[in-house]
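Hi R.,

Quick one: here's the Transposable element P transposase-like RNase H domain-containing protein sequence you asked about.
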Amino acid sequence: MKDDVYAILKSVAIHEDLTYVIHANGRLLRSWDAEINIFSAQDVEAIVQIVHAKQFCRGCPLIDVTNSSRVTKKVGGRLHHNDCAVLTDADKEVCAACANLTKSLKRKATSTRSKRKVPVAASALRKRLIRATAARERKKADVKHLSEKLKNALTATLDDIIKDLPEVQKMAVRAAVMQQAAKSPRGHRYTADWLMVCLLLRLTSPKGYNALSSMRALPLPSTSRLVQLLKGLPCEYGLNKFALESIQLQMTSKPDNQTYGCIIIDEVKLRETTEFNRTTCKFDGFIDYGDVARADGGQLADHALVIMFNPMFDSWVQPIASYATKGAAPGWVLAKMVLNSVLQLHEHGARVMNMAPVYV
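And here's the predicted structure, written out as tokens:
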């Protein structure tokens, strides 16, 4: 090793045009915070003193810079930013660029450690999934139970409030509550009894029905909905099962001595014509005795025979059967019609005492 060997750590080179460059530790300073123009020897002395007072930037420790190699460089066993100022003030160990680089590398190292996944056994994950699924099903069952409990409580409270009202008013109140609970204007639902009441109101007074519906005085379905329901009802000759079931409901709550009545037979003149029935995809207008007897095919009907039941202690009259005939029905067919009607009325709780034909 040779003695008296010197190394130039800092240098200031002045050109002929009085511009200057500064080298520190063999590197050229690209930026200089003290811009001093040279006009005299005192200016050169001031520049040299400022450079002498500066210390070298220490950079940051040598760590993994896999994703930051483009902005860093290794100098003397430490990392420096590509924009490192090389020299920094005496009270600072690193320049601003290297300080920001140190913070960025620390954040990246912390984020990398937090993203490391801890290996978990498949059986543990399966057990965790089973427990979570069971807990979810229990919560769903609890929500369903509480919803039903709340619904039953509201229904019980409503029934207690309207228990003294007439039956029709009870149906109106329940229909109003159901209509209010609907989430959509197209989601209204009505009971079969209330629909029947609305249909009777519509047939009795169409203008009154429209007025009540427009004022929203009652929870009434639209007229198009009623027409749709009427089109959906089976309209065929023979016994009307729906009418017989309605009579049975009326007679169930009455004593036996108030279930008596008589059968009324009437007929009406029809125009001989045919019409295609879209519901059954058949032509109507021919003789039809229902289930009583087979009619002669191909003959057009010109009369409709209607059998009605009139209770003795009530003022209503309910048609229970209708038939299409050609003129007067044959005697043996008429006898089977009456006998079949009497038997069906007895099966549905009504007692027939006599028969009263209207037509002569």
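The first helix runs from residue 41 to 53.

Cheers,
M.
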